[in-house]
Design goal:
It holds the Pfam family DUF488-N3i. InterPro entries: YeaO-like. It comes from Streptomonospora halophila. The chain has six helices and five strands, in the order αββββαααβαα. It is an alpha/beta fold. The chain has a five-stranded mixed sheet with strand order 1-2-5-3-4. α2 packs antiparallel against α3. It is globular and about 35 Å long.
Length: 142
């Protein structure tokens, strides 16, 4: 896969220690191979997307926000800060759901695929930041 990342508005972040987590909207990567190991991190399958057109390693529904939290946030997008706080609490309460992502990060680049149209205020951003912020804690538990 050569260079499509810059063409699709991909967001990339790392912790300076070799961790590379990329965020890509599902619709921006259809029919292409995302960088590294790719995980769909939405609870619901993206509307209008054929499963054969999305290249991914696993669909991790359990790392997505709970249905209740997702509905609460979508009812009022101005709740971003509180949504992020509540979602981080959900992630902290379910560390085992993050294991596939942490294992893949130990091997290299991870791409988080999401269906959100807002690329700055969505759960994948919070998930990426949580993975980066808790990386040392997780390594100590293994």
């Amino acid at each position: 896969m050569s260079g499509h990342a810059a063409d699709v508005g991909e967001q990339q972040a790392g912790d300076g220690g070799g961790v590379d987590i990329r965020l890509i909207r599902v619709r921006d990567t259809l029919g292409q191979d995302p960088p590294g190991r790719a995980f769909l991190v939405d609870r619901l399958w993206p509307r209008g997307v054929r499963k054969t057109s999305l290249h991914y390693d696993a669909w991790l529904q359990d790392v997505a926000p709970s249905t209740e939290l997702r509905r609460w946030f979508h009812a009022e997008p101005g709740r971003w800060e509180e949504f992020a706080e509540r979602y981080r609490a959900e992630l902290a309460d379910n560390p085992e759901a993050l294991r596939p992502l942490r294992d893949a990060l130990a091997e290299g680049t991870v791409t988080l695929l999401h269906g959100a149209s807002d690329t700055e205020h969505n759960h994948a951003v919070v998930l990426r930041d949580h993975l980066l912020a808790t990386r040392g804690e997780a390594a100590g538990q293994q």
